[in-house]
Amino acid sequence: MNKLIKNIVITFFVGSLIYVVAQLISGNDFYYETTNDFLKEFSFFQLYTFVISYTNTCFFEYMKKRQFRTQEIIKRIVIGIIGTTLITLICIFCLRVLITVVFYGESFRSFITHDSWQGYSFGLWITLTIISIFYVTYFYNRYQKNKVKEQKVIAGAASAKFDALKNQLDPHFLFNSLNVL
After folding, report:
1. CA distance 123 to 139
2. Are 92 and 48 in contact, with CB atoms under 8 Å apart?
3. Do residues 139 and 73 touch, judged by C-beta distance below 8 A?
4. How far is CA 23 from CA 27, 83, 86, 125, 178, in A?
5. Is 0.85 topped by the overall pTM?
6. For all residues of the chain together, what is the average pLDDT?
7. What is the rounded distance in angstroms from the CA atom of residue 28 to the CA atom of residue 4?
8. 64 and 79 in contact (C-beta within 8 Å)?
């Protein structure tokens, strides 16, 4: 439960950061006629962030469970990027339909007629940027863990060799060897 709360808080802060970046890029200068307008737009950003974050996290967990050989890391990254892109576009489309049809009361036909790439590009680029950072961090941490495991194996082998040499110097071993001679 603690991890869930931590993820929700992180997602909220990421959504807030994305909101600020979007406002700076669009040049709105955070100007709203009413507080209600601000709350609606901020809530929509949070909704997009939570849905896209949750679906991509589920996809990432699915990808972690799939068994890829170590030489297939490029394949895994390509599948991850293509999957993330498709999931993000589907989520954005569904959320845009939901907000336009349910919240603003427009018809689905009107939505399809007036829909354009601009409604998808910002969300897709932000998601791909975050996912790229996440993948780089994930694979770097995994690489470091593998290096630590290798070092432990090397240290274990060296320790076993040391114990073998120490046993050869054991007085009982020397006595028995001299006794045989």
Report:
1. 24
2. yes
3. yes
4. 6, 28, 25, 15, 86
5. no
6. 84
7. 33
8. no
